Each structure stands twice: as structure tokens, then as C-alpha cells.
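[job 4471] stage=fold_predict status=RUNNING
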Amino acid sequence: MIAEQFMHDVAQYVEGRVSKVVLNSSYVISQFEQKAVTDGMLAINYIIPASDVSLVTKIELKDAADHVITSHDVNVPITSDTLMLQTIHVKEVTN
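[job 4471] inference complete, writing C-alpha cells
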């Protein structure tokens, strides 16, 4: 069993690494509404401006050196400025 505090520490480490969101491999968001760790979960809130992005097909979280931390293929139409919530859960998986 992994200690809850360790999972929290790992989530805090990931929070420190995430420096930007990249949409559709080209649109960069580096200003977050909120980035917070609760227990073993990192929550990131950011706004996608409808004037710049009309459809999101890929969401990547990257570090300052432009390395991909997570990548997700999605299909999200953006018809108005949209507040996104993205989460990363650190948890133990048992087989």
C-alpha cells in the first residue's frame, strides 16, 4: 500500500512540472485560472478563448522544456470562451 502523503507529494511534483497546455499541437496556454493539489489529485483550470480556438482535437500538458507530460485526443467544440478543468489523479493500482 502506498501512503496517502506520498501520493500527495507526487501530485505536487507534477503540479510543479506542468507549465503549459498546448491545444491542437499549436495553441499554447500558459496562464492558468487555478492549479491546485488536493490529496493525490492535481486540478488545472484554464480558459480556451473561442476567438482563437473553435475545436479542440488534442490537449497536451507540457513542462518548461516542452516535454509532453500528458496527451489526450478529444473532440471539444468551442462556441464561447470555455473554462476547462483538467485533472491528474495519482493513485495506487493493484493487480
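[job 4471] summary: The two ends are 12 Å apart (CA to CA).
[job 4471] exit 0
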